[in-house]
Structures are given as structure tokens and as C-alpha cells.
Amino acid sequence: MTDSTAPHVSSFPWKKGTVVGLYGISGCGKSFLLKQLKERFEKGGPFVFIDGSELIAECVPGGLEVFQKMDKALQKHHRKNAINMIQKLHTDEGRVAVIAGHFVLWDDEEADLVEVWTYNDAMVYTHIIYLDIPVDIIQEYRYKDEIKRRFPASKKQLQEWMQREVAGLGKVCPENDILLTSVHTSDPLDRISALLYNFMEQSEPINLFHAKMKIDDFVARSQGQLETVLVIDGDRTLVAEDTGKLFWQIQMARRGMNDVQHEDPIQVLFKSRLGYSYTAFRQATLIYEELVDEEEFKNICHEVASMIKVHPEFLSLLHAVIETKHIGAVIISCGLRGIWKNVLEAEGIYDSVGLIAGGRMEDGIVVTAGVKASLVNRLRHTHRTHVYAFGDSPLDLDMLKAANNAIVVVGEVHNRSKTMEAALLNAIDKDGLRTFQVMLPENTSPRLDIQKLPIIKLTDQKFLHSMFRRGSRTMKFQVRHATGKNVAKLLATPTRDARVKGPALMDCHRSIGRYLAIEHISDLMGVESYEIPHVQGHQTSGYRLSCERQTLIVALMRGGEPMALGVNDAFPLAMFLHANDPTDIKPEHLHENITILLVDSVINSGKTIIEFVNHIRKLNAVISIIVVAGVVQAQSIVEGTGTLANTLI
Known about the structure:
alpha/beta, Rossmann fold, 6-stranded parallel β-sheet, 5-stranded mixed β-sheet, 26 helices, 20 strands, about 20% strand, disordered N terminus, magnesium ion binding
């Protein structure tokens, strides 16, 4: 059973562990900027601002003067201790630490630049903001600084220093999942303030939470009439083109750059070790923010939109959907919301279909492959709609697997994803994906073979009839059960056998918990892939519960413990909690978790479960709740009269 309360809150706990480095060469104005930031933000608020030099002076007996006379190894030791202390003192309190620091420094003895970045820096920092100030301004700052003694440096030396830092940070940040952005103005206070607020409010669980809010809002517009939803990818699906590629072609052309000689920065990013991860998409947002100001961004989005058209087949389908109350359509794209908004407006359908995409900080989210799949799962399992998903690339495969009906859109050969063929074949052969393909335009060649990937047409009347026919939504919450199945009979028998007692009986209940987790919970929540070492020595793909680390298993004592342990066997990364009473669940147990599994052996009236659900809802109104039990009395879940059913609706 799944609680489906729609999220309607606007504030979240700060992401624990957020540490922002404010970097730039000596004399670029970091200390002055820190002072401005301290004055702007209230003391004791969500941020703490720290000058790296002052921190070291406090940590080292004798201060900075003694530190500067130490050998390199001892200096490195104190730098490590300083960054670790910041993480412990401030981020453990839930505050965002902002530290002014350096990647390299001038060394008088060696008369050269020396890297001062440490392994601990790489492990602690989550974001780096680099002050990329023009060197002539920095030289003026250094000359006028009467407080700090700085070695005389030419503009060329300062430029080389900056290049060393930018290159070094550009290498270590993606290697350590650190988000990096540069600020190019000599008056960066407002820009950096906006970045800090964004960094404070963002994390992967919160990003997914925002995305789910958007899909909930989309469903709410139907006022309860929605039965079927079309989820459609954007690039090379709804349209033939890759709009992101067009964006950077235009941007580089405006700067006199040849796109043959200069690869667009987003593609460079996605080819890095970050791949198409959440961190990569968040970094992509920072790239758009850094390299293209708001006005130019809007102009380029408008220009790209004017160059493309929605496939006529999709446009006809969308118009039919708009005229049908029980069907809705939503575009969910990893691309730029600004482009897709313009595309849909040009076709006159923006106000009639949903749109979920990112690209700028103001959009509030980034859309990853995992987000797409999660939103399809939410449409199916929370809102109980029948989902048709359309996509073209490996980023869409998890979404296609999660849908009731999956359709792969196949474009002209030169526009297709080059990696889709192998990934699609693997999904069909190994993951059991059942899908069709639609060719747009219709005369293009199909993918794979038509036995493995059958062809349909968006204009086929039988296909349209099956899509548009009305179904029934009998319940507003879901009940998954194994009643009557042979596996249930086999698992339940020893629990009813009077001869089975003690540890043996507990093991039987544990087995039931593991079965329910693998068979039903994994279907409700979905799974995600990750790399594991193969027995033959190479790496291969394994699977675990989607957002397993953000899942809390609560064993309702005493009866629920054996089954809960079985659930934990299936999901070992989840948090585990024993609860004798609802108040045993504290706010800190819900922090950053997105799903709670309440596990009990037997549910009669549902009174105990209701008490737990109501308590959880007071602490967190939006967290998903799944109730797991070995036996549930039918009367408790009858819609309209069942107390448990009425609570979970």
C-alpha cells in the first residue's frame, strides 16, 4: 500500500555537508567579498563564511607567521586539519560553509607557484566558485592593498597564476564530484549570493522531490479525471533535431567560433567521468548560467525553437489528447525548458500539455534518466494512471521500462543516438523490456529487427483506440498482494505450523519479508543500475532498489522485526529502525529519506499503522509510505469503509 499525499511545501532542510570554496588568485578580492557576504547574511543563519588564511592562523599555535615557516609536509598537515574542522563544526549543524581559499600559491623559496590543494579538500568541498576577475583589476587591487604584503607580479604572471588554478580546478572538480563555476564580474556579490542560495537548496533527493511536485501539479490540473498519460521525450523524439546541439552552434557562431574546432561544453561534460549523472546535469546548469547571460539565453532558445517543428504525427496526437478529458500529455526532457516552452507555444499547445525540464537555476530542477523513470513510476503507482512513454536514447530506457507501454522513436539514421542500438538490445534481451518502434518519418529504416522490435504507427487506428479507450480507477491507493499464489502458500505454511517455533519461525517470517521486498516493493519503487565486479574479473551492471540509501525500514515491534529484517536483507543500503511507538520515529530519521517502509507481521483493524502514518505526516507531509505486512484483514482496506484505506487515500 502506498500513501500518495501530494507534496505542497516550499522549504527543506539544508543539505548536510555543503562546503563551498570561494577561490581566486591572491588579490582578487576574496576577503572583501567575504566581508560583504557576512554583512548581507544574518549571523547564525544558514551560511558561515571563513577566510582560509585566518582559519589556519587560528589552528596553528603562533598563527600564520609560524605556519609560513613550517616545511611543506607540516603545512599540508595543518591544511587538512583545518578543512576537516570546518566540515565537522559547521556542516554537522546543517549550515553551508563558505571558505576563501587557493588552489596554488606563490612560494618565495622556490620562486614559483606551488599547489596547496589537498586530498581532504577534494573529499570535503561540494562546490567551487572561482573569481575570474580581469588581471588588470586584480593588479590594481594588489597595489592598493595596505593590509596584506604581496609579492610584485606582472599581468603576465597573474594571468599564468589564474590559468594554473583554472586548469587545476577544472581537472580535480569533476574527478571528485565537485560542482565548479566561475564568476567573471568585478562586482560579484549579487551573483555569488544567488549561487549560494541555489547550492543550499539543492541535493539529489530534493531535486527528485521538486520533480515529483511538478508531476503532481500536472495531474492535479485534470481534477481527478486523468486515466492515461503520454510521457514524451523532447530531442529526437518530439522533434527530429537535438536542440542542445543547435543551442551551442548558435552560441559559438555568435562568438565567431567554429563548432568543428570547438566542441560544445555540454558534450565535453557528458563525455567526462561524470557521464549523465545528477552531478553532470547540475554542472551543465552552471555552465549555461556562466557562459550565457539571461537575455542571450532567452534569445538563443527562441532562435532554436524557430528552427524546428514538432513531428506532424505527434502534433496530431497531442491535439487529440487535448480534446480528451481522461488523457493527458507531458513533455519530460533532459534538455532546456526555455527551448521547449517556445516550441510548444509556437504550436499553440503550451497551456494544454505538461512540461518538465531544466537548464537554468530558476527552473528549480534538472532532469536525469532516473528522474524520468521516477516520474513515470509516480504517474503509475501513486496517481494510478496508464502510461505510454516515448523516447529515443539510452537516457530514456529506464523511463520506457517503467511505463505500461513503451515506444521507441526512430529518426533518420544521421540523427539517431549512436549508443541506443546496443543499449536497447540489452534492455530487451536481459531486462525483459517489451516495446515497439515508430519511425519518424515513416520511410526511415527501423532499428534492430521488426520481430524483436515491432513497428507501429502513431496514426494507426487500432493503436489509437487502445490508447484512448477509457479504463477504470477503482482505488486511490494501491494494494499489492500474493494471496492465492503458490509462492505465498509455500512461504505461509511453516508460519502456521505449530511445530515450527523460535528462531526457525523467525526465519520463516524473514523469508516472507525478503520475498515481498523483491517481488512487490522493487516493482513499486523501481530499481537502478550500478557497477559491480564480475566473477570473471571485469566490471558489469548490477541492480539495487531505486533511492535505496534514502529509504527507511521501520520494524513495528515486536511482531514486525523478522519480516523487516527480511526486507533489509533485500535492501541492505536502507536505514533500519525499531519502533515500539510512533514517537520512536524522530525528525532526524526522516532527514533526506524519501520513502518509509512500515513493516508489521499482521494488520487487523489497521489502528497501529494509522497512528504511525499520522505521526509521520506531522513530521513530513510528503514522504512516501509503503506498508508491508504478512497478513492484512480485508475489511481494513475496503475503500470507503476500511479505516486503513481511508487513512492512506
